[in-house]
Specification:
The protein is mainly α and about 300 residues long. Helices cover about 80% and strands about 0% of the residues. The longest helix is centred in the C-terminal third of the chain and has 29 residues.
């Protein structure tokens, strides 16, 4: 009996880990961080605790719902790609119907939390972000155009706006700049990975840019987008949203990204693709941390 109980316990633990994996926790963590920064930048003082708690909970559940729907919709594609073939659905560790119910339930709960405990505008924007990623990007753009990640990236760029609106109930230019920052960051971030995984995408029939236009063209696009990103990153300082701390940090981080992209562009193979991809994650995390530091230093000096 004890052995049977132990086996059952391990089975339940394994099942929960598979559901947890459906939500792409690392991606959701970055989404929540950028949403939190949007919240904290929206007001000079502290954000009301209940708005922060329920806002992040609703946004996080919605992001996890979109990720789980992505798993369900892409299960056949995932099965033929090395990077994704060990996910719960391709391996049969979870049933598709259960994963779909789990995803929808998270989405419904997320919308309920945001409507009842935050505000309707945040719920509406979050819903559009969920549909934009899980349906418009995953079902249509990903399968039809090499510019899929450009336009599909808009849904993933919305979290700082969601955080801002959760606190203020308004859409202003400042959070839109944060959205623009992530929007321009997404193509060089993802295309660097796509260069390394181009054979995976070709095998799955996904028209990622390195598959349709070649590696050399994609490398050039990565470089051009990082140059564009460096320019966009200076706009918050130009409009006096941020101060000198942010300016210095944004320049340093942006030049670092351009260096990685330039090195990738100049190389004859893809050995710098993953270092560029890795730096892109560090870049975005550091940029949003920098926004917070600059915000609170300027508050203390005011």
């Amino acid at each position: 009996m004890a052995i049977a109980d132990l086996t059952l316990s391990k089975s339940h633990a394994g099942s929960w880990r598979r559901y947890y994996e459906l939500g792409k926790p690392k991606v959701v963590a970055l989404i929540l961080f950028t949403a939190l920064v949007g919240m904290l930048l929206s007001v000079p003082g502290m954000v009301p605790w209940h708005i922060m708690l329920f806002g992040l909970l609703g946004i996080g559940l919605a992001a996890a719902s979109g990720a789980a729907l992505n798993h369900v919709i892409d299960r056949r594609i995932d099965a033929v790609m090395d990077r994704t073939r060990n996910r719960p659905l391709p391996t049969g560790q979870l049933e598709t119907q259960k994963a779909l119910v789990f995803a929808i339930a998270m989405g419904v709960v997320a919308m309920g939390i945001l409507v009842l405990a935050v505000n309707v505008l945040t719920a509406v924007l979050t819903f559009f972000a969920l549909i934009g990623y899980a349906v418009i990007y995953t079902v249509f753009l990903k399968r039809t155009t090499p510019q899929n990640i450009v336009w599909g990236g808009l849904a993933g760029a919305l979290p700082p706006l969601l955080g801002w609106v959760a606190v203020t109930g308004q859409i202003t230019v400042e959070p839109l700049l944060l959205v623009l920052l992530i929007f321009v960051w997404t193509p060089p971030h993802f295309w660097a990975l796509a260069i390394r995984r181009r054979e995976d995408y070709a095998r799955a029939g996904i028209p990622m840019l390195p598959v349709t236009h070649g590696v050399a063209f994609t490398k050039l696009q990565v470089l051009l987008y990082t140059l564009m990103l460096l320019t966009v990153s200076l706009v918050p300082f130009i409009i006096h949203m941020t101060g000198l701390i942010y300016l210095v940090g944004a320049l340093a981080l942006g030049i670092g990204f351009v260096f990685h992209a330039y090195r990738l562009w100049r190389s004859s193979d893809d050995r710098y693709a993953m270092p560029t991809f890795g730096y892109s994650i560090v870049y975005l995390t550091a940029m949003f941390a920098l926004l917070l530091v600059d915000h609170y230093v300027r508050m203390m000096m005011a």
